[in-house]
Protein: Copper chaperone PCu(A)C
Organism: Paracoccus marinaquae
Amino acid sequence: MKTTIFAALAALIPVGAMAHDGVGVSDAYARSANPVTGAAFMVLSNHRDVDCSLVGVASDVAERVELHTTREVDGVMKMIRIEEPIEIAPYASHALQRGGDHVMFMGVKQPLKDGDMIPLTLDFGDCGTETVEVPVDNQRMPQPAGGTGEGAMQGH
Ligand SMILES: [Cu+2]
C-alpha cells in the first residue's frame, strides 16, 4: 500500500531532507453524498519527530465543516462528530477514508461536481496549518480497507 511505503521512506530520510517539515496532505479527494452534503478523504503524514494533531478543519464550500468518524452503534454503522483531536504519531500517517475518519461538509453551497476544487484548511495546532485544494471525484471507489464506507455515507 502507498501509505505504508511512504511511512517507511519517511522513517529513513532525515527531517532536514524533507521539503516539508509539518504535516503533509496527500491523495486528497472529495465526494458528494447528496446535493447539500459531502465529505473529503486524504492521507495525513506527520514529518516531524513529535506528535501532531488535527484539531480543526475549515472551508467556505459549506456552512459547516466537521471532523467525523464512523462507528458501529447497536449494529448499525453511524457517522459521529469527533470531539477530540486526531493524533498522528511522529513520522506516522493517518488516513481519512471512507468508513473511517473523514472531513464532513454540511450545508454545501453548491452541489459538488467532478473536477471542482475545494479549498480546505487543516489546523494541526502546534504543527501548523495546511491549506490544500481537494478535487471532487464522485466516481472513486472506496479502498478495500474502508470497510462499510459506501453504506456509511448514505443518508447522512
Ligand atoms: Cu460524516
Observations:
- Residues 2-139 form a domain with the Immunoglobulin-like fold (CATH 2.60.40.1890).
- The first strand starts at residue 23 and ends at 34.
